[in-house]
Specification:
The chain is an alpha/beta fold. It is built from 8 helices and 15 strands.
């Protein structure tokens, strides 16, 4: 029997999961034997690859000079829209590896050239659930831009952007206690620090205690990374930790950015525990190969199934999202 059926066309989603602000940079890696390798990098490339792998719909906001427009080739993803602003300079830095002892190396980061500050003029006219500010240094993001974004959606900030300071003489990137991070935190729904940064701010080596202090400053959810461990204090005060299964290795660059962006985007539709599982699964896959994450949702689901779903069930208070 022939039955006529009406074709249903689902409306296309016009609201982005996230608007992501970040830099693309020309990077020079110099090892202790004075070997130099040049590559295109920066947190935005790694964040975009994580979003593309997890089918997140994102708007990418970046700056560089027109003569370096080839760097756009490093931002790929069918669900990504790029907002590029021309600047006098492209971001450029040098990473020097120094031997501490026979088994340890330390990376020193030098800013050779910087782009101008992201400000309200760089805010694209789009709608999004999250407005994400990736790792950087003081001077990368204007406070008024963050305030404006907090009126439009949830702000997710990598706190390093207001803790790291570039020495005006040497260009060396270092931590500074002369920062205004406490003024910024109340505008952030999500804020991320490394374990070292949280200890610098709070004086606490215990991560849970550090999270509770940072939460008292006005943040809704705090994410702390300790190499292969990711810690979360959610909006209801529940503290959870999860381990990235793959051991830290030479592919560790921008792992924090990959995990942070993945958690924030997953939180749009998921609870904190599942979002943390997903972020750690993506972190595991990122450590399995050099460079930015390259996988698909099936790979992520496989990792979730065999490393996280079989863990004992943990129950926390339900979260009421404002969506």
């Amino acid at each position: 029997m022939n039955v006529k059926r009406k074709k249903v066309v689902l409306p296309k989603e016009t609201k982005f999961d996230s608007v992501i602000f970040g830099i693309i940079s020309k990077q020079y890696y110099e090892d202790y034997l004075d070997n130099v390798e040049e590559r295109i990098g920066g947190p935005l490339i790694y964040a975009n690859s994580a979003c593309a792998s997890n089918n997140s719909y994102v708007a990418l906001v970046t700056k560089f000079s027109d003569e370096d427009s080839f760097m756009l080739d490093y931002l790929n993803g069918k669900n990504s829209k790029i907002f590029h602003y021309n600047d006098t300079n492209s971001h450029c830095l040098t990473i020097k590896l120094k031997k501490i002892n026979q088994t340890q190396e330390k990376a020193f980061v030098y800013y050779d050239l910087r782009t101008t500050t992201f400000n309200e003029a760089n805010l694209p006219n789009v709608s999004a659930y999250n407005y994400v500010f990736l790792e950087g240094a003081i001077g990368d993001y204007d406070l008024n831009l963050i305030k404006k974004c907090s009126e439009l959606g949830d702000v997710a900030l990598d706190g390093s952007a207001f803790i790291n300071k570039v020495d005006n003489t040497t260009g060396l990137l270092t931590y500074t206690e002369d920062n205004n991070i406490k003024e910024i935190i109340p505008y952030c729904h999500y804020i991320k620090f490394t374990c070292e940064e949280s200890e610098l701010l709070t004086g606490k080596t215990n991560v849970k205690e550090a999270c509770e202090i940072i939460k008292s400053w006005g943040a809704q959810e705090i994410i702390i990374t300790k190499r292969d461990i990711v810690c979360v204090l959610d909006k209801n005060g529940n503290y959870i930790e999860e381990r990235i299964v793959e051991k830290p290795n030479l592919n560790y660059a921008f792992l924090d950015t990959t995990v942070f962006v993945s958690y924030v985007n997953q939180r749009i539709t998921s609870d904190p525990i599942y979002s943390l599982y997903c972020a750690c699964a993506i972190g595991t896959l990122k450590l399995k190969r050099p460079g930015p994450l390259l996988c698909n949702r099936a790979d992520i689901d496989h990792c979730l199934k065999f490393y996280y779903y079989f863990k004992p069930v943990e129950t926390i208070e339900p979260v009421e999202d404002d969506i």
